[in-house]
Design a protein that fits this description.
The chain has 3 domains: about 20-65; about 65-105; about 115-200, no CATH class. About 60% of the residues lie in helices and about 10% in strands. The chain has helices spanning about 1-20, 20-40, 45-65, 70-105, 115-120, 185-200, and strands at about 125-130, 135-145. The longest helix is centred in the middle third of the chain and has 38 residues, at about 70-105.
Length: about 200
């Protein structure tokens, strides 16, 4: 009796699908997609693993049973699908390119000194840097990156020297002009921070 009821229900659903309009079909498909999405979200990791295993087995069985024509048709479909994805990605990238160009055109990060860049960076590296005889810079040992909390100093510039995360050690020299103080431009950093907030 139950099988008879199931077949009647399946027959009724099939008839309903055949007589539906395109709008009804779209609405039904949207409901089914949402139902499947909700079901996936409620799955436990074990249920998901079982579900994925069954799906892999089903696809494997289908591929083992397919004829040469079906195999060629599947490969052609996959090639066509990949080409469509490439075209869609290319179109999307081209559409997104204009805002990127506009943003970079009036970028407030240009012209920052190294010290100013280090001041607003969210990550700061710890490393030993040496100036070589030819004037080039070199480093030795490990480089470690730490997160830097930039919220503290955005309300108060310049920072107190005790809170700075940089230590510059210079060799003693008779030429006092070879060393210089590092200056930080408050207005320049403020504009850079506002620009970063608006564009990220």
């Amino acid at each position: 009796m139950e099988n008879n009821n199931v077949s009647r229900e399946a027959h009724r659903k099939r008839k309903s699908k055949e007589s539906e309009t395109s709008q009804q079909r779209e609405a039904r498909l949207a409901r089914e997609r949402e139902r499947k999405r909700q079901k996936k979200m409620q799955e436990t990791s074990e249920e998901r693993e079982v579900h994925m295993s069954r799906e892999r087995d089903r696809k494997q069985n289908e591929r083992e049973m397919e004829t040469n024509e079906q195999y060629e048709e599947r490969l052609n479909y996959q090639r066509h699908f990949r080409e469509q994805i490439k075209q869609q990605n290319l179109s999307r990238i081209i559409e997104e390119l204009d805002p990127i160009i506009d943003t970079q055109g009036n970028c407030k990060l240009k012209g920052l000194t190294k010290i100013e860049e280090m001041l607003i960076a969210q990550v700061f590296p710890v490393m030993s840097v040496y100036r070589l005889r030819g004037g080039q810079l070199g480093y030795r040992g490990n480089v470690i990156n730490f997160l830097q909390d930039v919220r503290e100093f955005t309300t108060r510039l310049p920072r107190h020297p005790s809170s700075l995360d940089i230590l510059i050690v210079c060799r003693q020299s008779g030429d006092l002009t070879s060393f210089r103080d590092f200056n930080v431009r408050r207005a320049k950093i403020s504009r850079a921070l506002y620009w970063l907030k608006a564009n990220n």
